[in-house]
Amino acid sequence: MYQTTVKAQNHSYPVYIGENLRHRTGEYLSKSYSSILIITDETVAPYYLQDVEKSLSQETVFTHVIPAGEQAKSIDTFYQLHTKAIEFGLDRQSLIIALGGGVVGDVAGFAAATFMRGIDFIQMPTTILAHDSSVGGKVAINHEHGKNLIGNFYAPVAVIYDVQTLHTLSDNEIRSGYAELLKEALLADRKLYQSLIMNQLSSLTSQELADKLVRGINIKAGIVEIDERESGIRKCLNLGHTLGHALESILGYGYRTHGELVAIGLLFAFRVSEKTFSMELPYEQLYTWLKSNGYPLNLPYIEPEQILTKMKKDKKTLRSTIQMVLLEDVAKPSLKEISDILLLDYLDDFLEELAQRNQ
Ligand SMILES: NC(=O)c1ccc[n+]([C@@H]2O[C@H](COP(=O)([O-])OP(=O)(O)OC[C@H]3O[C@@H](n4cnc5c(N)ncnc54)[C@H](O)[C@@H]3O)[C@@H](O)[C@H]2O)c1
Ligand SMILES: [Zn+2]
């Protein structure tokens, strides 16, 4: 088992990563709680809920299952979680455990952040992507006008990551989370990046994956520790997301997984970086790896103007000019404002190139 520590503004918290940790959840509680509410979704529940419940047999445990998928990050689910917490009699000495992917982590975390002005919560991620969402202390739900618009910064008291739960993930969810790992490596660790794209996803062992997830978490934790509230360097975590988010919003959530669209966003960030800094990045290597690992790289026709409009709606843009995370080199990120005219030009070229290669 690996253990690492993340420093948040108000406290530090341990991250435990290893196999079968869900059977030993009780051992990782740092204090005793008056009661525990485990929140999970309907896909994860039949696989893992009972294991976690059993591992807490010494405690007073309640469970609540929410629907699976992005739709559950809603004000309705949030309210329902509060209702359940009140009905079960949770108090300020209670604990919420979020067992699931980023959706469960975000909505259960936001419920924990707000129930009685905030109670302890533990993240138990069950997707690869959630290695990212469970660390860094952002919790949120969606508003009909946009994703993650209602939320808070609220760090968990621990992250317990049982990598064995990743075996039941679908291929597209594996690709999705792995794209975030590629992103972290591209931001900070050339060697990790090389090792990530030496592997074929289908032949990755649990041990190899755990090793890479720890390194990804350490990169994210390192960035978040310096800039918890996203006033500077944390923005770099948006690499690949300027286009990724815009595509997600235009194509509709669920059309492709988040990370599959971020992967296309990474390719675009490579191309824009090459043009901005007049140099070459290993674009072909990344493209070939993504293709051979089943990432869908084709897109339906979308007007570049429509993409630009969506990018501008993204709350992470600065004033009205798009700020993109670029790479001066692998592991050397740089924030740049790109004018609309240039961006439209780059989008045009990039979409054309993708279309030609995926005819
Ligand atoms: N808070 C943050 O810093 C942060 C960062 C990145 C992403 N996010 C959020 O995370 C969410 C995406 O997370 P996600 O990709 O984990 O999505 P998710 O939670 O919807 O999980 C994806 C799908 O996999 C299923 N699933 C989960 N674990 C499984 C397992 N072990 N076996 C089989 N199926 C399993 C889920 O039921 C769901 O259908 C988005 O809402 C995004 O906004 C938050
Ligand atoms: Zn992402």
Task: Tell me the layout of helices and strands.
Elements: E1 2-7, E2 12-18, E3 36-41, H1 44-54, E4 61-66, H2 75-87, E5 95-100, H3 102-114, E6 120-125, H4 130-133, E7 138-143, E8 146-153, E9 158-162, H5 171-188, H6 190-196, H7 206-226, H8 241-251, H9 258-277, H10 283-292, H11 304-313, E10 322-329, E11 332-338, H12 340-357
Parallel strand pairs: 2-9, 3-4, 3-5, 5-6, 6-9
Antiparallel strand pairs: 1-2, 7-8, 10-11
Helix pairs in contact: 2-3, 5-6, 5-7, 5-9, 8-9, 8-11, 9-10, 11-12
Bound molecules: nicotinamide-adenine-dinucleotide and zinc ion.
How many domain modules? 2
Q: Rg to the nearest angstrom?
A: 20 Å
Bound molecules: nicotinamide-adenine-dinucleotide, zinc ion
The number of distinct β-strands equals 11
For CATH, the homologous superfamily of the largest domain is named as Dehydroquinate synthase-like - alpha domain
Shape: globular
What assembly state would you assign to the polypeptide chains in this entry?
A: single chain
Percent of residues in helices comes to 40-55%
Q: Beta-sheet strand percentage?
A: 15-25%
Assigned CATH architecture of the largest domain: Up-down Bundle
**Mean pLDDT value:** 95
Spatial gap, N to C terminus: 45 Å
What is the CATH C level class of the largest domain, in words?
Answer: Mainly Alpha
* Number of contiguous helices: 12
Backbone structural class: alpha/beta
| CATH T-level topology of the largest domain | Dehydroquinate synthase-like, alpha domain
Low-confidence stretches: none
Biggest β-sheet: strands ordered side by side in the sheet: 1-2-9-6-5-3-4
Main beta-sheet annotation: 7 strands, mixed
